[in-house]
Write a structure and sequence with these properties.
The protein has helices at 11-17, 21-29, 33-43, 69-82, 99-102, 105-122, 129-136; strands at 2-5, 56-61, 87-92, 148-152. It has 157 residues and is of the alpha/beta class. It has a single domain (2-9, 51-152), classed as Rossmann fold.
Amino acid sequence: MAVVSAPVTNIETHFAVSDSGYYSDCYSMYGELSVKRDAMRELSPLSYVERVRTPTLILQGESDERCPVCQAEELFTGIMTATGTPAELVTYPGGSHHFFESGRPSHRKDMLMRLTGWLEKWIDEPLKADDAQSCAHGGEDRPERADQSAQTAQPAS
């Protein structure tokens, strides 16, 4: 199982939508977008989303400017449409990039409950041999679509 919080899933779009992408992505990629576009695509997790076989919980602050919510939405939508892998996307209203450490107490509690619930749900689920085989072959024989959901966490009253 996987738990992802505030991901960068598409370096090319992160460059354009993040409050730091225009300089941090160029720095980490050793060049400008116009020169490193192919490398950015090759290194972006979204380029390989059809191979995802690990149940994935995505946690995201809706007001995150460092890793904007569109990055999490792209990952979730990619998993949902290209695989049969269980996935959930939970967004936290008003949550910043640091909602996990310094967000609303109700959001931090909710996030911890979801994280532990996800671990408990999937900890004993082994990767099936046919899923591993499918991953090795680029996912051509993907399983049927599993239960997937997108949710907005509601603050406690």
